[in-house]
Inverse folding.
């Protein structure tokens, strides 16, 4: 299986490359110009990663976003991490008016609490717990509020401060958004991405009680 | 209390050390090795403190060897420095706040990279309250880390009661943590800890693995 890391001017690209080398046999880092030149037949077997770490102020211009959106729809799978996930959504409060990829029918909102959501959280459980197997690293001040239901999508939410529930990960056909950083979540992060790549059932919520 | 191992680097990023009593430094070997070993112990985070005025090239390869979040502070002067650090895999970059101009620069960097990626490092002084008031107005900021010890080892040290007071005052808007000068008292905050307590006992405490502990201690320079 091959992977491409999209270099759009933000993100922890080198750390992500090192992390993905544990899972994929071939990894390429490509910028936008190179990406759109890749043939469709190659893209059919390639997973594309949009890295996290950064802000919406670094998103590309509208004309470039159209090309990128077409490119992503041709790929085998598109996985967005943190701000990369936000870039895959419909709109973001962080980049008011900016054109996004619109691969997922979701809107990014600012967390109600002014403090950052930082640290290790369990999916769908309250607060931080050491006993849960699926603890992932979150670091964000914007997120996607978890709806009660979303047709055609599987998602898990995490509880931030003030009883706000935000999407921790979402799978909508070949588009996958991760609010957490699997590359910074230790061996569990490797297992998570490995589950996606091998088409296994994704980790479900495990009770901490 | 959340303890984060802190790796101080010097000599062009080629050696790592911890401090005893905030003054004497003990060499603990190649930072790459230390990063790798500590990362395998699953700490919440790893912090790198650069003690030089400029950023040594060697530190850019540290995040490749860690599966845990990493933060960096020291010698960051421009947006380009920040961009290179994020690109290499650091999750958060800290800027040392000494005057109003530093706060302005931090604000610019927050606007560019997002507040969730930036830390503010402040040395305790009469101006600390003023700085914290200004930082509270930021849209978002990852963490404010308080110090009271200098590179030479001078400083009063940080009392947990003082930090708890500041947390009561500013805790609703800022994540406050302690680093240099911490005296070991119990406190309800994050502590970045570069000392024998972390480096000698941390792997054993967390993993109960003597081999990991030895692999760090074995590289001691007598």
């Amino acid at each position: 299986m091959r992977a491409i890391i999209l270099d759009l001017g933000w993100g922890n690209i080198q750390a992500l490359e090192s992390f993905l080398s544990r899972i994929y046999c071939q990894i390429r880092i490509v910028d936008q110009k190179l990406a759109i030149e890749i043939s469709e037949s190659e893209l059919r077997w390639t997973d594309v990663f949009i890295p996290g770490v950064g802000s919406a102020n670094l998103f590309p211009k509208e004309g470039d976003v159209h090309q990128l959106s077409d490119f992503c729809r041709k790929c085998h799978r598109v996985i967005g991490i943190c701000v990369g996930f936000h870039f895959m959504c419909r709109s973001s409060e962080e980049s008011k008016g900016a054109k996004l990829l619109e691969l997922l029918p979701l809107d990014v909102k600012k967390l109600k609490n002014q403090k950052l959501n930082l640290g290790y959280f369990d999916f769908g459980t309250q607060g931080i717990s050491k006993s849960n197997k699926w603890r992932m690293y979150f670091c964000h001040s914007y997120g996607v509020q978890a709806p009660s239901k979303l047709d055609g999508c599987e998602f898990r939410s995490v509880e931030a401060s003030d009883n706000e529930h935000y999407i921790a990960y979402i799978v909508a056909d070949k588009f996958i958004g991760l609010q957490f950083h699997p590359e910074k979540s230790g061996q569990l992060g490797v297992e998570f991405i490995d589950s996606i790549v091998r088409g296994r059932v994704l980790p479900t919520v495990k009770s901490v009680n | 209390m959340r303890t984060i191992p802190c790796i101080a680097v010097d000599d062009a990023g080629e050696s790592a050390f911890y401090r005893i009593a905030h003054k004497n430094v003990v060499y603990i070997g190649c930072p790459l090795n230390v990063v790798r070993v500590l990362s395998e112990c699953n700490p919440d985070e790893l912090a790198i403190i650069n003690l030089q005025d400029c950023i040594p090239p060697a530190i850019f390869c540290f995040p490749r060897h860690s599966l845990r979040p990493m933060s960096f502070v020291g010698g960051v002067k421009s947006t380009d420095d920040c961009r290179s650090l994020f690109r290499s895999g650091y999750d958060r970059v800290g800027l040392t706040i000494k005057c109003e101009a530093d706060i302005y620069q931090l604000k610019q960097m927050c606007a560019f990279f997002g507040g969730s990626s930036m830390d503010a490092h402040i040395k305790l002084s009469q101006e600390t309250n003023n700085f914290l008031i200004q930082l509270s107005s930021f849209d978002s900021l990852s963490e404010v880390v308080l110090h009271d010890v200098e590179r030479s080892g001078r400083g009063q040290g940080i009392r947990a009661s003082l930090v708890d007071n500041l947390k009561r005052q500013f805790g609703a808007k800022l994540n406050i943590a302690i680093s240099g000068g911490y005296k070991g008292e119990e406190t309800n905050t994050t502590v970045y800890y570069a000392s024998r307590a972390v480096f000698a006992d941390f792997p054993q405490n967390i993993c109960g693995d003597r081999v990991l502990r030895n692999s760090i201690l074995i590289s001691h320079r007598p």
